[in-house]
Amino acid sequence: MNAWIIAIVTVIVAPFIGGLLAGIDRRITARLQGRFGPPILQPFYDFFKLLGKAKIASSRLQLIWIYGYLVFMVTALLFLVLKLDLLLLVFVIGFAGVSFALGGFSSKSPYSHIGANRELMQMLAYEPVLLLFALGVFAVNGSFLISEIFNNPTPLLARLWPIFIAVLLILTIKLRKSPFDLATSHHGHQELIKGIMTEYSGPYYALIQLTEWYEYVLLLGLVYIFWANPWWAGLIVAAVAYILELLIDNITARMTVGWAVKFVWSVGLVLCVLNLIYFWLLPIKGVS
Amino acid sequence: MDYNWMMAVAILLPVVAAILVYILRQYHVRGIIVVVTAIALIINSILFLLKGSQTFTPANAQLWDTVVTVLDYLILLFYIYAGISLKNWLVLIFALTQIVPLAYFEFGMGGKAALEAINPTFVVDHLAIVMTLVISIVGSLICIWAIRYMYDHEHHNHIEKSRQPRFFFWLVLFLGAMNGLVFANNLIYLYFFWEVTTLVCFQLIAHDLNKEAVNNAARALWMNSIGGTGLILAMIYLFVKVGPDSLSVAKIISGGIAPALLLLPVALLCFTGMIKAAQMPFQTWLLGAMVAPTPVSALLHSSTMVKAGVYLVVRLAPAFAGTKLGIMVALVGAFTFMAASGLAISQTTGKRVLAYSTIANLGLIIACAGINTPLSISAAILLIIFHAVSKGLMFLCAGTIEHIVWSREIEDMEGLAAKAPMTTAITTIGVLSMFLPPFGMLLAKWLALEASFTIPLAGILFVIASAATIVFWAKWLGRLMQVLPKLGSKIESLSLSYTVPLWVLVLGIFGLGLGVGPVYEGLVKNAVANVIASGQALTTSATGIVVNGVTAVSSNPSFAVGSYPVWPLFVVFAVGILIPFIFVAVKPGELRPVYLCGEQVEGADADEWYSTADAKTKVQLGGFYFKGALSEAALNPWTYTLSIALLVILFGVVFLAIGGAI
Amino acid sequence: MGIIATSRLKSPWIMHFDNSSCNGCDIEVLACLTPLYDVERFGIVNMGNPKHADVLVVTGPVNRRTARVLKNLYEQIPGPKMVIAVGTCGTSGGVFHNCYNVLGGVDKVIPVDVYVPGCAARPEAIIDGVVLALQKLAKLQGVAL
Amino acid sequence: MIMLPTVVRNLFGGPATRMYPVTTREPFARARGHVEFNEDLCNQCGTCARRCPAIAIDLDKDKKEWILHPDRCIICEVCAEVCPKDAITIAPQWRAPFYKREAIIYHSKAVKEKGEKTGE
Predict the structure, then answer these.
(1) What residue spans define the domains of chain B?
(2) Which pLDDT score, from 0 to 100, does residue B491 have?
(3) D98 falls within a domain
(4) Which of A114, A216, B236, D106 makes the best surface tag, with the fewest CB within 10 Å?
(5) D51 touches chain C (CB under 8 A)
(6) For residue D10, which residues of chain A lie inside 8 Å, CB to CB?
(7) Which residues of D touch C136 (CB under 8 A)?
(8) Are strands C13-18 and C45-47 parallel, antiparallel or unpaired?
(9) What is the pLDDT of residue C144?
(10) Which chains pack against C, by 3+ Cβ pairs within 8 A?
């Protein structure tokens, strides 16, 4: 019964945290660019405004997939807060991503097609790293369950810092930050428009924003578990990671998709693999 | 029912039905015979399940021994004939490498003795029951689906003289051969059924009799003949080194034979299985087999015949447990999984994508067998079941789509969701069930990944392959989804012969996915126990599956390593996909054209835009295929080099171990 | 409904369309986005896509080619939507209003809510124009700005 | 990466934004904001209306009205330059946006008086 309460509270509270994070993001980004920036609550204004807009669509299918995106992202978040299987969590994120990409494919729009194709390429880039992250957690804890991470007094960061760096790369992709704002981004790029989101408008676009808020919480949650004990250390790690992402967003230019895949594979994947090899070469002692 | 009758129905009824469809040439008569046979086989397979583990030796064994021997040579003589008439020397050479050692073995070395020494001839254990269920149910459904498909196929191609009786002769015959193969305990019987499936494969690939079909059929023939040769060599080695009674699968895996003696024959048998399962570098025969009519691809080249290969490897898993051979088997499988998934991204033909995906998944199963823990064997067996259902469905969908758009190219399928909503919906479920939660395939893949820790390199290869898998499936699905802003597309009307198997398989996907707990408890657990006795990998609970922690890290058996909430994930799927699918509605007034910088031609469903000088130009979209970086031409040198190197290392390891033992 | 009405006033996303302007006004529109004016303070974000926009900012006189595009874009904006014609040309056609290929101001094609005169319109004037448009929207909704 | 120092400086240097509605910058001295018309000086010669490139100025000599169309005016300063009486000047403050395109009508008082004087 306790799990139900946690789940319900998460579903309700997460969007508020995510929205605030988005607001802080916009404010800090503005400051980094020497601007004043919008109010912190601006994402919520945007959200409610979008809810109140007229419904228009360019096909019925695209609307179906967007619910899949939302529901699976929430599910992934619930996996995290209920401390379930990390490996399965990655697959659930995968479903959310596929659902989003399929939404982009579901209309005859060149922009959303480009976005969807790039989203798939990004998934090709980040999926292995996330899965290897799960394997790395297994190497440390001997279990894929997130609850075991919380039981382990040593932070993951101590043993998995190469994977942590790789996960930061992934975070840039997932937060749709430069240089990986390829499939869609928070800034209007004229040649891409809004990528996958191009054909979504009004309430449906609001749903995407809502999903992104859940995603923010989920991703920072994944960063959090790198230092789950004591509870505040993870928050600091997550906050630092978040600020770092914003900084990277503002000092880098967008790259091509091919570069993104190559870069993440050659740096992120190699870091992960080296990290895992380290564990397999050394006998694991004293864990669990 | 009497066990004699059950075995007869399983193996001989398809033969009788095959002869009947060949003689009675009417479309409707053929349909009735196929449907009746299918129903009989399905009921029969369920009876096997109810009977449980059994052994069986036919009443007048000597007669059957003679029949098998005679047919063996007939088949091999046919291969020689085929090699000569096609002027394909590879076929001829590998036919000779089979017939000469076989004749020498049976008549020169007294190999006949082995036939009598082995008792029982057939062992129907739970692993075999899993296989016969797959063969009988999925295979029968594909046969039913084929009735209409072949009619349309010939109709569309304006074929004057119907070749359908011949087609169904081989197709139905195959079901019997497959059943025989999975039940066979005696290696000589196993070899016979193995050769029958190779023969059927050759005949069916060559069915259309065009140049490409015949060439590819010949390639399939000689590659599988290498496998057959491997089987014969394994038999001879066992016969000479161990004795006549060792030509029995049950004996090999019982642990009664010294492991050092077993290593080489088991490696050869695994090699044979890998060729049948089209592992790299032998993947080309399966890719070539895609020229065959789609029921063939569905039945032989995805859900059943290629499973014979992995079945053999899984079956032999106890014989290479804890050896370096096991690790190498795992690596070959994992490498194939990765390479085939990567190559699938660049494929533009639907059936080739399916073929690569099949190769990849077979690789995963073999890798699981190589990893050889209770968990990985559970994953392998679940994969055999789920892959057969999902991939069978996918091939049937591909075939149905082929008969709607008359093309196999993925690009030609674009916007299918508007043309054929029902087929698209079924295809979507099929594709999603291949690689995403909550479906069974993902559950099995997840198990495989959790099990991969014992062989870390395999785990890394799995991870890369999973990412590639997502790309090529989603890409394909995306092409189907691409529609114009139009409403009220009519649901297409299809023949019952198409729709019934499709829907049954869809139900199967959901049923098996949801009921994975009972399926595991009632079926897979016993099958796993047939392969690997120690340790229970999974526990099923009310909500899902819990992986027990028998790992290198923790020895505490109550320690949970992973959990998979089956029911909740299905609920999530229903909420996220099915409910929106039913309830999301769009009013005609809400439709807008897509954004084309404001330059599109008026009308919400126009897909044209004004180009230079106001010329109306159609919007043309396409998928990414990475023709440069990921094409076969670019990757194949690497995949061949690495996979051949892996095979060389595999045998090198075996020879080293034997040398060390001696 | 209240929160949505308020939010509408707090988050006007603009889409900028250039008919056949001399680019003077366009540069001034972009100047609004620079750190100096930073219209994101008011929640104004420049969108590249009519489907996300609330306010269509049009510069330049409408000519025979752009009229079709302008209309098309306007139809793709989901309601409630506002149109601001920026610059003298956008308002009336300006010096070009008698040209053979020019139809005139933006209001020849789509209904315009606010006109921002000027050649080129100043960034402050453009901001004032958006505020005026919001006032109109507020009055329509019966909400205080 | 080159941007890093700039960005960090921005972060701690405070925003460069001028809070427009709160603090308004005075227009530049010679900025062309809008046309101002002094009806007392106008002699209704009509040069401005003839020379205006945007045809933004109308002159109704019968009603003695000087009509400015602010929606057409491009503030090019031609009218001010050609006006013999310097009745037209350009003010630096920009013209406020409006909802409706309406002409601004001035009654030329000077002409009226002059007409009375020379009306015999």
Answers:
(1) 1-319
(2) 78
(3) yes
(4) D106
(5) no
(6) 31-34
(7) 99
(8) parallel
(9) 67
(10) A, B, D
> pLDDT value at position B209?
84
CB contact under 8 A, D16 and C94: no
Please give the structure tokens belonging to residue B95: 């036919």
> Going from the N-terminus, what domains does chain C have, and what CATH number goes with each?
2-141 (3.40.50.12280)
Residue D87, in any domain of the structure:
yes
The verdict on B420 touching A (C-beta cutoff 8 Å) is: no
Beta pairing, strands C102-104 & C62-63: antiparallel
Cβ burial, residue B199 (10 Å; 0-12/13-18/19+): buried
Do the Cβ atoms of B19 and B169 come closer than 8 Å?
Answer: yes
pLDDT at residue D118 in the model:
44
Please compute the mean of the pLDDT values over residues B103-127 and round it to a whole number: 81
| Nearest residue, CB atoms, A53 vs list C38, C47, C78 | C78
| Total of domains in chain D | 1
ipTM beyond cut 0.85: yes
For residue B453, is pLDDT > 70?
yes
Return d(Cα A121, Cα A264) in angstroms, integer: 11
**Pairs of CB atoms within 8 A across C/D:** 85
The verdict on residue D1 lying in a domain is no
**pLDDT for res D94:** 84
Q: Is residue D36 part of a domain?
A: yes
Count of CB atoms situated within 10 Å of the CB of B407: 13
Q: Smallest Cβ distance to C48: which of A56, A193, A205?
A: A193
Give how far the C-alpha of residue B163 lies from the chain's centroid of Cα atoms, to the nearest Å: 26
Give dist(CA B220, CA B200) in Å, integer.
11
Contact B302, B391 (CB under 8 A): yes
Amino acid at D101: R
Size of chain D in residues: 120
As a whole number of angstroms, the distance between CA A224 and CA C81 comes to 42
B108 is written with which tokens?
């020169």
* C-alpha Rg value of chain C to the nearest Å: 14
Tens-place pLDDT, residues A230-267:
888 889 999 999 999 888 888 888 888 888 888 888 99
B615 touches chain C (CB under 8 A): no
User: HEC states along B183-248?
Assistant: HECEHHHHHHHHHHHHHHHHHHHHHHCCHHHHHHHHHHHHHHHHHHHHHHHHHHHHHHHCCHHHCE
Determine, for residues D97 and C37 on separate chains, whether the beta-carbon distance falls below 8 Å.
Answer: no
Please tell me the distance in Å from C48's CA to the nearest CA on chain D: 24
Residue B237 has pLDDT above 60, yes or no: yes
DSSP H stretches of helix in D1-120: 4-13, 47-51, 78-82, 109-117
* Long-range pairs, B29-35, Cβ under 8 A, ≥24: B30/B147, B30/B164, B30/B165, B30/B168, B31/B147, B31/B497, B34/B143, B34/B144, B34/B146, B34/B147, B34/B168, B34/B172, B35/B144, B35/B147
Hey, are the CB atoms on A142 and B593 less than 8 Å from each other?
no
Q: Quick check: B592 and C73 CB within 8 A? A: no
Query: Measured between CA atoms, how close is A124 to chain D, in angstroms?
Result: 26
| Residue D35, domain extent | 27-118
Closest residue in chain C to residue B594, using alpha carbons only: C76
Please tell me the least confidently modeled range out of A125-134, B363-372, B623-632: B623-632
User: pLDDT-based confidence at C85, cuts 50/70/90?
Assistant: very high
Amino acid letter for position B431: V
Cα distances from A218 to residues A2, A74, A75, A152, A275, in angstroms, run 20, 9, 10, 21, 24
Angle formed by the axes of helices B126-133 and B374-405, to 10°? 10
Query: Shortest CB distance from A198 goes to which of C38, C49, C79?
Result: C49
Bridge partner residues of B248 (DSSP): B186
Beta strands in B121-206, from DSSP E residues, in sequence order: 122-124
pTM score > 0.95 for this model? no
Per residue in A136-183, pLDDT (tens digit) is 888 888 788 888 888 888 888 888 888 999 999 899 888 888 888 887
Q: Under DSSP, is residue D91 helix (H, G, I), strand (E, B) or coil?
A: strand
